[in-house]
Amino acid sequence: MKKIVLALTFVLVGSFMLAGCSKDEILNHYNNIVQSAGSIELTGKSSLQGEKEKGIDDYTGTYTADYANFSGTEYLFGGTSIKREAGKELSIDCTLEIMEGTAKVFWISGSDEAVTLIETTGTYSDTITLPDGGNYIGIIVPCNSV
């Protein structure tokens, strides 16, 4: 019951704070809230197996990792922007070198099934158009990999 009361309080306080704002300003505020919530899905910097350098936003950057003695999934880039400042086009360049075991770099959008971008030693390069909603790039390293 307290959750509902707090949520309603947040909505009421938010509507008072946005009084007098233009439609675009309200949409920008809403987009910022949605994007902040979407950042929670990303694997935290202290939990990452490698080194990540953030780009202009959570959708871009570089990531390098050595997955020895690791199994799991890392969500590296992405978010839930309604209107991404840099646009809906995202260029992906990935090099995967598998010495032993398996790994899979994927893109997941909304409630759709994950799309495998690369899962063998090699390179992947493409430009994708991000649909509205959550979009994440990640890597899965199964427990049989070392």
UniProtKB/TrEMBL annotation:
The keyword Signal applies. Residues 1-19 form the signal peptide. Keywords: Signal. This is Lipoprotein.
